[in-house]
Write a structure and sequence with these properties.
- The chain is built from 15 helices and 7 strands.
- The chain has helices at residues 8-17, 22-29, 31-41, 46-67, 89-102, 116-119, 127-138, 161-174, 187-196, 198-203, 215-228, 235-248, 256-278, 284-288, 292-296, and strands at 79-83, 111-114, 142-146, 180-185, 206-210, 232-233, 289-290.
- The protein has a 5-stranded parallel β-sheet, sandwiched between helices.
- The radius of gyration is 25 Å and the shape is globular.
Length: 306
């Protein structure tokens, strides 16, 4: 009899040790709560949310593989967010920082948001200290570079953006276990930027495109702004807002949710002015209600849409 042969009980115990409860791991990281919050707080963006869930699932399974002792190369987490202004890129980057922190891929989970001016100096010897200072603040978290293509200005031979790019590329490669970089901007310009800077393209693992909001989604966003501020739109204001959105998005400088936020803020100013000019006693409903005239006073209704 071979005394070294494992018993049935020992085999069962060994097999049990080769399994991991993903549901328990999800609960441990609280990742589901973060994803549900993303769904609840952000209107639309279905393809973006789906991609974020895929990335979160991949990282969760990668963490499970590591716990099981399976060989697993550290995932590259640098990303590119492309889309028009006001489509939620910065907001999603902030949520992504929390997700990566919960899953144990970054130490702190904070977001440092910068543009070219924060990284590039105006004279010799100024760029490296600026860039390194930003990287130092971002270490352990996520560095979000908005309109990243402005770092590269080939038409200016004396531009210092290339120095910042070289420093960023080095850190993205050598310290990718302690910093996640997200580059953001218009899709067409980002495509040109990557074509001119293959070093960035090779380091970006996830490209996520942010679609424009539909008219219906923009209306829902406006209603959410009103709810948060304890305002409401009258029935006539609802109609005016629908018309406003259709006209505003036809303009060249339209910026999705950002434009709707600005429109709501101006409507509140007009409502306050209207109430003050009317004078007298105002009740709770009047203080909360945005009327059609508060929206239709916008110059959007007086400008010709070409």
């Amino acid at each position: 009899m071979n005394m070294d042969r494992p018993t049935a009980a020992e085999i069962i115990e060994t097999e049990a040790q080769q399994a991991i409860d993903l549901k328990a791991l999800r609960a441990e990281t609280e990742i589901d709560a973060l994803l549900e919050e993303l769904d609840r707080d952000l209107v639309g963006l279905a393809p973006v949310k789906r991609r974020i869930r895929e990335i979160a699932a991949f990282l969760l399974v990668t963490r499970a593989r590591e716990r099981m002792g399976l060989q697993s190369e550290a995932p590259t987490l640098h990303m590119a967010f492309t889309g028009n202004p006001g489509t939620g890129k910065t907001t999603v980057a902030l949520r992504m920082a929390s997700i990566l922190h919960r899953l144990g891929y970054i130490r702190k989970g904070h977001l440092v948001s910068v543009t070219r001016d924060d990284l590039v100096g105006q004279f010799i010897g100024h760029t490296a200290p600026k860039t390194k200072d930003v990287l130092k603040r971002a270490m352990g978290g996520v560095l979000f570079i908005d309109e990243a293509y402005y770092l590269y200005r080939p038409e200016n031979e004396k531009d210092y953006g290339q120095e910042a790019i070289e420093i960023l590329l080095q850190v993205m490669e050598n310290q990718r276990d302690d910093l996640v970089v997200i580059l953001a901007g218009y899709k067409e310009r980002m495509d040109t930027f990557f074509a001119s800077n293959p070093g960035f393209r090779s380091r970006i693992a996830h490209h996520i495109d942010f679609p424009d909001y539909s008219n219906e989604e923009l209306f829902t966003i406006a209603e959410s702004f009103a709810r948060e501020g304890h305002y409401r739109f009258s029935p006539a204001a609802h109609e005016a807002l629908v018309a406003y959105i259709a006209r505003r998005r036809a303009q060249s400088n339209f910026a999705n949710a950002r434009s709707i936020r600005n429109a709501f803020d101006r409507a509140r100013l007009r409502q306050a002015q209207r109430l003050c000019e009317t004078g007298g006693v105002v009740d709770r409903e009047a203080l909360q209600t945005i009327e059609a005239e508060d929206i239709r006073a916008s110059r959007v209704f007086s400008e010709t849409i070409s």
